[in-house]
Amino acid sequence: MQLHLKEQKMKVIAFYLPQFHEIPENNEWWGKGFTEWVNVKKAKPLYRGQNQPRVPLQRNYYNLEDVSVQEWQVELAKKYGVYGFCMYHYWFNGHLLLEKPVEQYLKNNKLDLPFCLCWANENWTNVWAAGGNKILISQTYGDKNEWKKHFDYFLPFFKDKRYIKEGNCPLLVIYRPDIMDHMNEIFDFWNELAIENGFDGLVIANQYSSLEELNWNDSRIKYHIEYQPNYASRWIKGRLYNKLRNAKRKMANILGKFFKSSFFTTRIIEQHLELRDYDKYWNCILEHKPESIKNVAGAFVDWDNTPRKGSRGSSFFNSSPEKFERYFKLLVDKVKKEYRSDYIFLFAWNEWAEGGYLEPDERNKYAYLEALRTALIENGENLK
Q1: Which pLDDT does position 110 carry in this prediction?
Q2: Which of 194, 331, 362, 370 is positioned for an S-S bond with 55, CB 3.0–4.6 A?
Q3: Domain with 122 in it
């Protein structure tokens, strides 16, 4: 099997969400039949001009357990210049969630698109739902026996010739390594196991969205992925935003103590729809210099998580495929000049409930995919 885009220099890797099929846990927590489409379908506009609900082209509310869906996704990605998928992986001390699409991808050799895994290593909660604050499954890290089991699960993926590698080192993305117990011990152990299994080690990257200086030992991390638009958000809001938010929090706490109620914390801090300017965020991405040689560029198609969070969410205005094409074209040129890595991690392939997707919808059809392809071709990328 020969992979596509062999001569392409810029590697656009799109984050890929597997929550488009039923699992027993989601049926228990959210009701029978829950998938990401439930949130997408029930969304309503909260301000004039908001693009909600988002409707997939020809109302294609697909089920990822259908192998033909992934075959369709891969053909689209190849046609429009996506180098590979970064697929979310959910592991809780041996308990897997949403693993079927990723395992199905591994088994199907027709899916000739490179891929890697991103361990979403936080607690599984309902915090993204309006008013949610409950931990559904806790994330724990165990001991070496647990670490070995986890590596053994990764190994068939690492060995697959489609798995994204640098030389002979598989790329593994970790959502938040800074919250891991025994973080560097785990990474060292996995690196040893990788070498024992014929690799030259692992390439470990993290999703980086913080403006703050790194306050943890990142010596085992090769790449900090600028996870957009959250990474730009911290730069835009910066000190002024943090000062205002802290002032609001203090006021809420004072009122809460006086009236002996959490009402004020909820109303003052959490119940706030945040509108963001698409142009402002993209200009920030383009103007901002990489913080270190470890930084890997990120990009975003769009963002609107109000289908999940309602009035506590955030939403961009002034987005369009035309703007995305223009900004992405400039980003590719910037990456070639300023970054050490040829990766661009893109939010996202199919984050429908957070408004970040390349897949075609009723409003824009294939326009975002066309925009990506045009931006790459105009930067001299060889797409076939």
Answers
A1: 97
A2: 362
A3: 11-377
